[in-house]
Structure formats: structure tokens, C-alpha cells
Amino acid sequence: SLYASTDPKVLRSAQSLGAAFGDTTAFPALRAVLSDPGQPAEQRAHAMSVLGRRPDAGSLAVFLGLLGDPAWRIQAIQVLSRFDSPEVSAALLQQYADFSPTERLAALDALTRRPGYAFALLDAVAAGKIRRDQLTALQMRQLEALRNPEINRRITASWGRTQPSPAEKLDQIAKLQKSFEEAPLWAYDGRAGRQHFQKLCASCHVLGQDGNRIGPELTGSNANGIRYFLENIIDPDAVIGADFELITVETKSGDLVSGLLIQETGSALTLKTPTEQRVIGRDEIARRERSDRSLMPAGLLDSLNPREQIELLKFLTSR
């Protein structure tokens, strides 16, 4: 009877409540609204909200279609990450080159959430369609959290996984500190350093106007000196703040979500990832883990040449 209401507020509330309890009666009409560019944006946003609460097979084509619409692309990618279909990974990889940096981040996050998607992503990396350095530290952690031996083997083959000893880390810190302190910093481009920060760090750290707060905020950290940055970058697992411990949740549908625990109630967890804030019901959880490792992997600087390393460190220590 509520679905038949002529009051738009009542109808929308009923549709949202129905989706929360698993009723899909209203879904066909909502799919028609969401897929129609001629419908008012407010109505399409409501349809996106309801259909995104409980993605079902009948909605897959609608969300895939929205990848072609920049206004809805980010939201569509976030919902598509919850489907288990090879059509999703194929579509994301096919259109990846046309995505904006923010959209690429969301796409890579989606492609690291399921083994099937991960294999498609690794195939694209091996073929040179996606550069290895475009994957963030958190996305690499998500790939490892899938606990798939073949995925781990391919990660090792493409990125390497040699863990330096404590003595080797201290030696690397000392050498880089010496190189930085002896470098004529006026000859190094701080703007290039910002670009390195945006590529390697901004998905998890805030510095000034850049970044996303998953890890500690870096604004004002320049007061700690170069040693602070080198120790945390080269040996990120040494000290992990309690507020920044990585939580990984695998849902019963096979979706893997990694992020910071923002809120926990008797019925749900709220995790913050680089692309969204996700509420996961306790009854949806198949596995939950708190990592004893930093979300930032060791060897982050290895993707930069010596000049680029100094440029990044100059940027970090000047803010």
C-alpha cells in the first residue's frame, strides 16, 4: 500500500525501506528511472540510492550503462564493485584510459576486491595497459588480503616482495637522509614533488589541500624533520597508530572492503575507504581482520628514481 502512495516522500521512503529488507518489487520502475537521462536528477539520485543498497542481477546492465555518463560514473563504479560478474572487470578495464584520476582510483579499488577482478587487473598490468605504479598502497594490501596463492605469486613476479632486514632499513634511511641534506634543494622542483605525492601518497594522506584522510594527516609534519618522513616511509610497520589500523572485511557475497573503522554498532560497521564510506551489516560479514601491518607497504620509494625521491621529500618537508 505504501508503494501505491501518491505522496513522493512516502513512496521514496517505502522504496528505501523495502530495499533494506530485501524487497525488490519497486526495482524495475527504479531501473527505468535511473537509466533514463531525461528523468529529473533528483529522481535518478533516489533510484541510484535504492538500487545501490542491494545490487541484483537485473540492475547490472543499468549500472554498466552509467559508466558512459561522467555525472554518475563514480557512483556506478562503487556499486559495480559489489557485483560478481566478468562483465564488470571487462567494462572497467576497457574504459579505464578515459577515466579521470578520481575515477581511476575508484576503478582500481573495485578491481582489487574479488579474485576474478584481480586476475583481470593483473592481466592488464602484465600487458602494459595499466602501469604498476598506478596501484596505491591500500589496493596492494587488498590484493594480498584476497589470500589467493596465484594472485600473490603474480604480485611477487610483477612488484617483488623482498623484505629488507632492520639493519638494511636503517642503512637506507641514513643514505637517503645524507643525500637529501647534501642536495641543492633549489635545483629540485617542488611542483614535481607534489605530483609524486598525488600519485603515491594522496589516496591515503592529506597534505595541505591534497589527499584523502585514511592514514595520518601530514600537514605540519615538516616540523618533525626529514628523519620522520624517511623512517615512516621506509619502515612503515614499525609504529602503527591505533586510529589508523587497517580493517579488512569480506562479505558473504565475496566483496572485500579495506579501510579505517569509523563507527561500530551492534548491527553494522562503517569503514572509510579512499573512494567511499561503506556501511556493512554484521549479518553480511563472512570474515573480519585487523591488520598488524601498515596499509603503506615498504619499498614505496622504489618506484621513484633518485631525483624524484628528493623532489618528493622536498615537497613533504616544505608543508
Percent in strands = 5-15%
Total strands: 7
Q: Which sequence of strands runs across the widest sheet?
A: 6-5-4-3-7
Largest sheet: 5 strands, antiparallel
SSE pattern: HHHHHHHHHHHHEEHEEEEEH
Residue windows where pLDDT falls under 50 for at least 5 positions: none
* Average pLDDT, all residues: 87
- The tally of helices reads 14
Distance between the termini: 59 Å
Q: How would you characterize the overall build of this protein?
A:
This protein has 319 residues and is α+β, with helices and mostly antiparallel strands. Strands 6-5-4-3-7 form a five-stranded antiparallel sheet. 47% of the residues lie in helices and 11% in strands. The longest helix has 17 residues, at 166-182. It contains 14 helices and seven strands. A hairpin with a 4-residue loop joins strand 5 (268-272) and strand 6 (277-281). Helix 2 packs across helix 3 (41-53) and helix 12 packs across helix 14 (306-316).
